[in-house]
Amino acid sequence: GASSHGQELQTAAAKFGLSCTIRSMCAFTSSGKSGNQVAVVIDGNNEFDSKRMGRIAERCVESMVAFIQPAQGNNRLRYYCTLNLLSPNGGCSRSMTQSMAIAAISVLLEIHRPASLPPLTEGQTILLKVVSPAGQPWQDEVSVRVETDGSIWVKVPAARILGTVPVEDVCEALNLNQLALQTEFPVQVVQCVARHIIIPVRSRRSMSGLDPYMDLISSVCTQYQADSFHLFSLDPMAGGAVHTRNLAPRVMLEEEAASASANAALAAYVHYHRVLPVESQEVFGCEQGFAFSMKARPSRVMVLLSLQGDDAKKQESVTVTGQMQGVAAQNEWLGQAVGSEATRDRLMATGDRYASNHYDESRFNLPEGYYEKVQQKELEERIKMGEAK
Predict the structure, then answer these.
(1) Model's pTM, two decimal places?
(2) What is the pLDDT of residues 105-138, one digit of tens each?
(3) What is the three-state SS of the chain?
C-alpha cells in the first residue's frame, strides 16, 4: 500500500528484482485494529522461494504471514493453491492455519485474484495445500467452503478430550490462587488442530489481572505436549457466553488475540462437561483479546455445536465463526468435535442438567457494568487514601 510499512515491504521485494501484492488483514473482528493480524502476500507466478519468503516475512509487522502461490504439477488437479505460512520469527504453528486461510481466501475472493489461479466464487468448496517452510517444516491440507452469503468455512480435525492437568501446576504458572478456578470442572487437555490446556476461571477479573510466569507456562505445555493455556470464564463483557484468554509462549506467541483451534477445543469441553446448557444447533459467543498484552485487541468467535444422528455413536461438529475486516458476512470454522471414544452419555431428558450449571448461572447473574463500577470505587478509595497521607 501507500504506507511506509508497505513501501518497506516493496523495497525488500525489489532487492530480488521482483514485486508483490501485499494486503494486511485482521481476522475475527470488524475493526482494523483488533483480532489476529495477517499479512497476505500474493505471488501469482511462483517467484518467491522459501529464502525470499523469509526475507519478506522478517519485515512484516503482522504476527502471521501467508504467501499465496499457484499449485504446481499434479497438485493443480487436487489443490486450488498453495499457502505458505510464516511469521516474522520464521516458522509458525499449526494452530495459526485457520486465521491465515481465512485471510488468504478473503483477499482472493474480494480484493485481488491473480490470473494464474482459477476463478473463485461463492458457494464453492476448495482444498488448499498448506506448507510451513521455515523452522521445523510441516505441511497439511485444509478444506475451505465459501458460502453464498460470503461466509468462509474452514474444516478442522475432530476435537478429543484427553487427560487432566494438576491444578497446582497451572496455578503456579499463572501466579494465581486456586480459589480463582472453578474447581467443579477439571483442568484438562483437549486436542483439536493442536493441544490446549483448558482452564475454567471464576471471573474475567481474575483473568485480566494475571501476571503469569511465561517460562513456567511453556514448561507445563511442554510436559503435556500442548500449545497453550486457554482460560475461560462465564461472565463475558461483550454479550457473549464465555470470556477467554489464550497464552501460548511455547509456540512463540505470548498471547493470541483470537484462537480458532483453542475455541473449537473449548466448545468440545463445554459440551462434554455440561458447563453450559448448550444443545445441538445452539450458538454461543467466545470473546477474546480484551486483556491482550499492553493494548487490547478485542475479538469475537461464535461457536455452534451440531449433533448428528440419534444413536450412541452419533457424530458431532463444531462451527466457529467470527467477523473479519474485508468480509461481508462472517468467517466460520467447521469441524468435528468429541468423537465416540471420548463421549459421555448425553441422551439426557429435556431440561436435565448437572447441578453445577444452576449454581454457575446464579453466581454470574450480575448487572451490566458491575466490575467496572467495582474498579471505579476501588480507584476512588485509593485516591482518598493518597490525599489523606
Answers:
(1) 0.75
(2) 888 888 888 888 888 888 888 899 999 888 888 8
(3) CCCHHHHHHHHHHHCCCCCCEEEEEEECCCCCCCCEEEEEEECCCCCCCHHHHHHHHHCCCCCEEEEEECCCCCHHHHCCEEEEEEECCECCCHHHHHHHHHHHHHHHHHCCCCCCCCCCCCCEEEEEEEEECCCCCEEEEEEEEECCCCCEEEEECCCEEEEECCHHHHHHHHCCCHHHECCCCCCEEEECCCEEEEEEECCHHHHHCCCCCHHHHHHHHHHCCCCEEEEEECCCCCCCCEEEEEEEHHHCEEEECCCHHHHHHHHHHHHHCCCCCCCCCEEEEEEECCCCCCCCCCEEEEEEEEEECCCCCCEEEEEEEECCCCCCCCEEEEEECCCHHHCCCCCCCCCCCCHHHHHHHHHCCCCCCHHHHHHHHHHHHHHHHHHHC
